[in-house]
Amino acid sequence: MTAPLVVFFVLAALAVIGAVSLILQKHPIHSALSLIVVMIALAGLYLLLGAEFVAAVQIIVYGGAIMVLFVFVIMLLNAGIEEHTSISKMAGVPGLLLVVALAGFVAATIARSTESIQATSQSGEMASTLGISNMIFKDFVYPFELTSFLILVAVLGATVLAQREKS
Amino acid sequence: MTLLSANAELIITVVKIVLLLFIVLTVNAYLTWFERKVVAHMQSRWGPHRVGPHGLLQPLADGVKFLFKEDPTPAGADKFVYYLAPLLALALALTGLALIPFGPDPIRLLGHDIYLGIAPPEVNIGILALFAITAMGVYGVALAGWSSNSKYPLLGGLRSSAQMISYELALTMSVVGVLLMAGSFNLKKIIEAQALHPEWGLFGWNVWPQILGFFCFFVAAVAETNRVPFDLPEAESELVAGFHTEYASFKFAMFFIAEYTSMITVSCLCSIMFFGGWLSPFPASWTFAHYLPSAILIPFGLWVIWDGIRYETLFGRIILPGVGTVIAALGAVFVLLPDVNHFIQGPFWLLSKILVFLFVYVWMRGTLPRFRYDQLMAFGWKLLLPLSIVNVIVTSFVILAKMTWWGAK
Hints:
By secondary structure, chain A is mainly α. In chain A, 78% of the residues lie in helices and 0% in strands.
């Protein structure tokens, strides 16, 4: 086993454990912390693929900004330990079926693919900061600007809603 | 032998990490001494002067005290998070330093190029990775405040996370100008971009075209490190000690070390991005400026010796001349060995600039009163953020104009 493969398995295990722990933890803060572990493990995986920019942005945006807001809100509301109800049959049976279907689908895709599945480095045009900015600001500039506009509208909407509540 | 050479890179890195940790923790300890001494003299006091000559052993005494204090855990605290928070704060603060390059040239040792600084100099996302670490730094404070299960820490933690989120935006925006000028996230390339005109000396640094960016960056960085005048999370008069009220003994020391380490990181970043990093402020043709390190070290060493001989205590009369001799001898070595002298130029200038910024930190603490909370938020959102955005727009237009009309690259 090569060193990158070992790192991959460690990070993948960390991501899966974090995701499972996110669901099983009783306290909201512990769940949020588990989600942060998942985010960081994913950033590590991106780094392993040579996508340095995406890895850093993953940590800054998801690990930093978004999860800090989650934690902040949980702290602000002082949310306590959740009450766990037993899983209803309506949710349990279809859920289990869905899990099996999804696992089968992924396994089939892996089995059918001709190329061997392994961590391939994307350190070319795609992954570098230059490549990403070329794509955003040249090839996909209109979708990008439209998305920016959408975000602006959302920000304005949030401001209006917050203002209305005050008066 | 092959095993050794195959793992040599790994061994070198581990040795570098241990060395850097040792140096940083020692510097941290003496930074507290420096801060107390400087603030004391600004306020016409003596500062620490009982433990060791000039109070120089005070950090050691403080460290021992931190280790041996009782370490109670508040009842009802979330144990896991309560223990995790200081660890997280310290680990993230120390990780940040790993990305800083401390000198331009590698040392050749046993056939290996050893660069000063832990991360290899070709790391492409240097500054982005540092921001990622800063972004994670909020958790140490927020979780410490929450897990203590106590009112004041919770309020301190909330305040602090709000403050850090607000100022992170301005912090990130303010360096975009520098990144545009350098065309890279790589810290080494950012420094090299400031050396395009070797004859300009300090007038080639980013601080002149990016004076607005520097202002925003420094203010936002001080706020990020929770230092005066932005130390609202630990406002004594309102919140006892803010997020670390319930922390004692070494867990408190870990927050303390984290704060001082991030001060050092911010000073490093300021010097690297706006003040030319390891570049000398003098034009490249002034070769006599290469003797400046010796010209500073030798007189300083001699002064320490002279001061030491007349010191009140016998211990001081032994230790201080010894320290002075070492400093003066270092200066003499730099004069006598041209290779060594050439090598230490970069680190010397970078460390001098870091020291200046650390002094500014302490100076501000001795001078400025604390912001009120609403002033803090208004300052961050209504002044710093718009200013840094204006800086980005102006810088990009100037660069665009240069490219279109003067054909510069």
